[in-house]
Amino acid sequence: MRSLPPLSAVRVFEAAARHLNFTRAAAELGMTQAAVSYQVKLLEERVGTPLFLRAARRVELTEAGARIAPVATQALDLLGTAFQAARNDSEAVLVISSLHTFASNWLAKRLGSFQLAHPEIAVRLEISSHLVDFAREEVDVGLRGGSGRWPGLVAHPLLPWHFAPYASPDLLARLDLATPADLLSAPLISPDDPWWRHWFAAAGVDAGDIAARPAVLMGMQQLQGAAALSGQGIALLTPSLWPDDIAAGRLVAPFDIVGREGEGSIWLVYPESKRGSRKVRAFRDWILAAIRP
Amino acid sequence: MRSLPPLSAVRVFEAAARHLNFTRAAAELGMTQAAVSYQVKLLEERVGTPLFLRAARRVELTEAGARIAPVATQALDLLGTAFQAARNDSEAVLVISSLHTFASNWLAKRLGSFQLAHPEIAVRLEISSHLVDFAREEVDVGLRGGSGRWPGLVAHPLLPWHFAPYASPDLLARLDLATPADLLSAPLISPDDPWWRHWFAAAGVDAGDIAARPAVLMGMQQLQGAAALSGQGIALLTPSLWPDDIAAGRLVAPFDIVGREGEGSIWLVYPESKRGSRKVRAFRDWILAAIRP
DNA sequence: ATGAATACATAAGTTGTGCTTATCTATTGC
DNA sequence: GCAATAGATAAGCACAACTTATGTATTCAT
């Protein structure tokens, strides 16, 4: 069992030993000379032997002090560099945990500009469907959907969490959909997705027990969008995540009705404790600017 | 300029990292689990990145934590062993600063028994005529004459600071001293010593301006005693310091009158701060027992 | 010599950190 | 499903660690 002296006193002693001058040590440590005198005395009492010889207007190390001083310097240097390195490292890599869809359809093609703007920050992008728990995973920022109310997290809204049915133009030509109700008999992708219910409600259609219909089941919008693009069915998609395919006409909305789930959005989130982190601030500033051109 | 994290937090973190368990770390450090949790959080905020991942009913180190932990252990070990060694060393050597006379005539022949009783304590005996300043010299205990009132020092009286004229029997036979006043014309050793004046006063003799008489001048009782032993004159000596020569009849007091200078004594002294030191306690106990058999 | 300047020690008073106690949450295991 | 265990959090308290003010001793300049 290790018995350590009061470490704050060690820190003060180390500075005093380096300067051989209490006043200058105090200046270095940002405290008063009286405080240095006090701490040194404390340490001497703890060690049981004087560490400094008090001469007139100067101090010098005793034998014991001279033996301890270099070790103290070495130990504190060790700690100083280790923690400095940790702090630097922690600012060197930005770990982003993102929704698959957002990562693929929005972030991927823009992330390059962030790295260009901040070449000193390496980015690791992790795709995950679950809500990352910042206490349990080494993640700096998250991109997720939801209400924006997560305790302990700072959340910035990015894109509205809208959704509407989209399909390939070929499929739509074949289906001949006149009213939203016609969708009930069309090949829906992931019909058990609760958002279909929301959308039908927004369209004024009684969907019945739509989830009971046999159909392809997909968990992620990314795959649903891909299926829709290849003409396999009608997918409920967030238009802001598919701007290119929509603009190019590869995905077409048969109706102009947009569903929304409460005030749901896609959010940038990070722990309140990371609010001060340089890399997190940099990413936040960049993404907020990028999303509202 | 080195920037260090709060060292008390580092100590807590190090223990927590070793145990990977806050509760056990708290037990080791003699504090509560809540305090460990608090300090770890503090350090994490300071470093800017989590050091532990909080899993269910256990913690594990993050990458940053894992990099820092071994360094912290190493640094604290370094400090621990250095200070432990200093403490041990400080208890290994006892430095005594003594009056010449007391060292030669009393201490020298008894010190062996102290070393026998405490073989783990090495003794360094320094002879000095000046009053040692414990703040400026690396001395543990002092043996000195005086009133016993020194601020900041603990003082134990050892021997009364008495003095009386002594001479060799040969010289006394030749001189034929009938009354104390006869001493005024006898060969006094160090007649300018102010104690002669005290002694003559005690003897009821008007010494006149005794210091004006030309004579051998010696500063230390040790030399005066040696001169008296060899028949060169009459010396004012402290009988308790010459017990052997007096018992053997090599030094004889022509009169039974003892002078004393106030409540003066020979004292054992040491700084109050050393009161708790094992070696100092050991020496004090030994010398007090040795002087009052 | 003498006064100014410098450096450390000490005393007294204030503040804030670092603790404890108490309680909550979550997980595990029987 | 209940007891036990581990960590987080909140509130409040106490003492340690400061600051300010002053004292003491020495050096240096004139």
What is the topological layout?
The structure is a homodimer of 293-residue chains.
Chain A: H1 7-19, H2 22-29, H3 33-47, E1 52-55, E2 58-61, H4 63-92, E3 93-98, H5 100-107, H6 111-117, E4 122-127, E5 141-146, E6 153-166, H7 169-175, H8 194-202, H9 221-229, E7 235-237, H10 243-247, E8 259-271, H11 278-291
Parallel strand pairs in A: 3-4, 3-5
Antiparallel strand pairs in A: 1-2, 5-8, 6-7, 6-8
Helix pairs in contact in A: 1-2, 1-3, 1-4, 2-3
The first copy, chain A, binds a DNA duplex (30 and 30 nucleotides) through α3.
Folded structure, characterized:
2 copies of one chain form a homodimer. With about 290 residues, chain A is an alpha/beta fold. The first copy, chain A, has 3 domains: about 5-90, Orthogonal Bundle (Arc Repressor Mutant, subunit A); about 90-160 and about 265-290, 3-Layer(aba) Sandwich (D-Maltodextrin-Binding Protein, domain 2), CATH 3.40.190; about 160-260, 3-Layer(aba) Sandwich (D-Maltodextrin-Binding Protein, domain 2), CATH 3.40.190.10. Helix content of chain A is about 45%, strand content about 20%. Chain A contains 11 helices and 8 strands. In chain A, strands 4-3-5-8-6-7 form a 6-stranded mixed sheet. In chain A, helix 1 (about 5-20) packs across helix 3 (about 35-45) and helix 2 (about 20-30) crosses helix 3 (about 35-45). Chain A is rod-shaped. At the A-B interface, helix 1, helix 3, strand 1 and helix 4 of A face helix 1, helix 3, strand 1 and helix 4 of B.
